[in-house]
Amino acid sequence: MNGADIQYLQKRIEELEEKVEQLRLSRRVLMNLIEKIEKDKSGFLSQLEKENRKLHKDNYRYAQSILKQNRRIVELQNKLDNLLTDQS
User: Does the pLDDT value for residue 75 go beyond 90?
Assistant: First the structure.
């Protein structure tokens, strides 16, 4: 092996070492991005679950209100029927 071959191989080793370092850096950047995405996703899911619980609670209250109003309507209809029956 002559000096030119050794110099070429040393240059090639340096290039490959630089590529390895760039890959390591890229991997760190990607891992940080993945962590951030997972953290954001977790926060978003938590927010959606909280909103879902609130909507269920509001829906339950609304259903209870409608049920109460329906009972009142039936009660008033019965009173009206009784009044009309008593007048006949």
Answer: yes
